[in-house]
Give the backbone structure.
Amino acid sequence: MAESSPSQRKTSGRVMHEFKHGELKSGPGGKGGKVKSRKQAIAIAMHESGTSKYDSGAVRKSSLAKSKRKEAKGETYQQEKEGRSHVGARGKRESSPAMGGKNAASPTRRAAARRSRTGTTHKRKGSSSSSRKRKAS
């Protein structure tokens, strides 16, 4: 079996962290209850990280992408419990406007920069019709 990538190891580590802290749940939407078996936790970690040999290539790729989307949005059980905006975030709040929250004191620098960037329009070089005419003659 091939070695797992750093992002796959990160996802596996996050899932095992959830298991250790009693946050890992099974089934769709966590309706199956808490995972109590270490073997089941490892199976879930391998499935989420796309390293399970029992899944096809397409399933592995899609499950890793789904996990990464979850981590980016802050929707993992670990992030919800610890109040982190994304995996690896240090002390950042879920309630910041940049993360979709409403009760933050002020927007983060990233959100302010995003707002200022979207207000401006960029011109492409050489897009005017006069420059084309000059090149033709």
The two ends are 62 Å apart (CA to CA).
